[in-house]
Amino acid sequence: MIKFLDLQKINNRFRREIDSRIGAILDKGFYILGDEVATFEQNFARFCGVKHCIGCANGLDALNLIIKAYGFGKGDEIIVPANTYIASILAISENGCIPVLVEPNFTTYNIDPDLIEEKITERTKAIMVVHLYGQAVPMEKIWDLAKKHNLKIIEDAAQAHGAYYQGRRTGNLGDAAGFSFYPGKNLGCLGDGGAVTTNDDELASKIRAIANYGSDRKYHHIYKGINSRLDEIQAAILDVKLPHLDADNERRRQIAEYYRENIKNPEIILPKIYDEKSHVWHIFAVRTKNRDALKQYLEQNEIQTNIHYPTPPHKQGAYEEWNDMSFPISEEIHWMELSLPMSPVMTDEEVGRVKDVINTYK
Length: 362
Ligand SMILES: *Cc1c(COP(=O)(O)O)cnc(C)c1O
Description:
- This protein has 362 residues and is an alpha/beta fold.
- It is 37% helix and 16% strand.
- The protein has twelve helices and 14 strands.
- It has a seven-stranded mixed β-sheet with strand order 1-9-8-5-4-2-3, sandwiched between helices.
- Helix 3 runs parallel beside helix 8 (232-241).
- It is globular.
- The mean pLDDT is 98.
- Bound molecules: pyridoxal-5'-phosphate (PLP).
- Pyridoxal-5'-phosphate is lined by residues 58-60, 84-85, 87-88, 130, 156, 158-159, 180, 182, 192, 194.
């Protein structure tokens, strides 16, 4: 069986180092907001090329903290792609803001920069870009729009740790970015974890306080905060894995290149890239008319796949008020998308077998 993502194999590469770092934490007996978190925050900030990294409990909270720290609330509008994981949109509506959905395009699967300006109103506060499937959003036009209309740019970088746009990493392409370290992400811990990155000193200290009960020092609460912290054990595990992230992403690129050059089946539309370094291939997304049949065919041949995602956010029960709206491009992506096995620990043999089986699909 070729797994979609073999997390055991991914993490067991670091078994000895992880064991010893966890052992050191047990010896020390300090578990929340200690040296491990501070060290990882510094290292991840350096990796992204930003001034600040603030650890938090998960990727949803990272986005939530950014919106809270900016003070966006009731009636404020935030532009977001129509085809994202529900977390991007939940972070907006959780704060009483209005998510304004914008169609993606088929070339990048990311928000279509040409469709943003018509959605900007006096109530628009920010554009949330989502580097979906691991590909950095082409930012040029979005930077111009944000400047012209005085909007913040919030990155949802949960799928794109390490991707570049014009020589800058994700996490450093807007005003603030949210990362997730959910186990299946390109940089994943062994539980939940997340972080915010930013170059804004004031925003950083505000987020740090809000994430810790709104407190800037112990028992002194200046904001109505939340409890959203990265713990010492997860931070230590992330710090073990971070130095290997670029090599892992490079292996993903090799696999993607092999798929893109060798999968030759008229039924299957392969993903496109505009620049090699822009993509870290969190997900290798293909499109096909009869997605469920392809999925079943691969399963019969012992190849696991996934769907990202089966139902568009505007068709979900949680957003009933949007169910009659139409976003045809987003819908088509959701009905046709299939994610092939992709991970840094796949062998050449496995990658070759996925290609062979797909090429025999009719
Ligand atoms: C995973 C993910 C999130 C949420 O991360 P969690 O850590 O699960 O809260 C947000 N946005 C996108 C695009 C994601 O893929």
